[in-house]
Amino acid sequence: MDTTRDFAGYPWVERTGTRTYMGYNARGGKVEIGPETNGANFTPGELLQIALAGCAGMSSDQRMAIALGPEFQSILRAIPTKSPASDKYDAFRQIMEVDLAGLDDEKKVRTMKFAQSSIDNNCTIGNTVAAGALVSEVEFRPPEVVATDNAGGSNASTEVPVSTTGLGGYN
Predict the structure, then answer these.
(1) Domain ranges in the chain?
(2) Tally of CA atoms within 13 A in the half-sphere of 11 that contains its CB
(3) Are 120 and 56 in contact (CB under 8 A)?
(4) Is 124 helix (H, G, I), strand (E, B) or coil?
(5) What Cα–Cα distance (Å) separates residue 85 from each residue in 80, 81, 100, 140?
């Protein structure tokens, strides 16, 4: 049985206008979500690409810092191949732009191998996409609100929409 605590701490989105949403987490982070035509927001597809690239970067960061030093610079991208026949991505090409010129050939190969191994072992997003995670149908529920601690340790709260009741009368 779902309780309000089951949803506390999970990110959520709130509608802000036609096809536009604001995404939140319990730590105070937020991101604007909407169509490309709205300008300075992210589409859901772009957020997936950023999640995949960011996860790969975070997963390999320690390995790269060992080889290149803690202040190394990198840019990561997850370039999708989109199926023209359906509304989905078929594949992602991951790219890490990083300067390995200061390493000899053997150390370059070893660094790339260890970085890829770290990504393979630790990138939850990449592993989830690669495994083809199942996505449930949407459960429609009436809104409820629970207050959670806000980031920064203040007494202020962030409201998180939750539900405690299955389909809550919509069945």
Answers:
(1) 4-131+144-160
(2) 10
(3) no
(4) helix
(5) 15, 12, 39, 29
Tell me which of 9-18, 25-34, 139-148, 161-170 is least confident: 161-170
Q: Can you tell me the distance from the alpha carbon of 125 to that of 56, in angstroms, rounded to the nearest whole number?
A: 8
Those residues with Cβ within 8 angstroms of residue 37's Cβ, 6 or more apart along the chain or in another chain: none
> Does the domain spanning 4-131+144-160 belong to CATH 3.30.300.20?
yes
Partners of residue 78 on adjacent β-strands: 94
Token representation of residue 111: 């660094």
Q: Which residues contact 105 (CB under 8 A, 6 or more apart)?
A: none
Tell the residue number behind the tokens 């202020």, with chain if given. 156
CA distance 48 to 33: 12
Task: Give residue for tokens 């260890």.
Answer: 114
pLDDT digits (tens, 9 = 90+) for 83-126: 888 889 999 999 999 999 999 999 999 999 999 999 999 999 99
Contacts of 152 (CB under 8 A, 6+ apart): 28
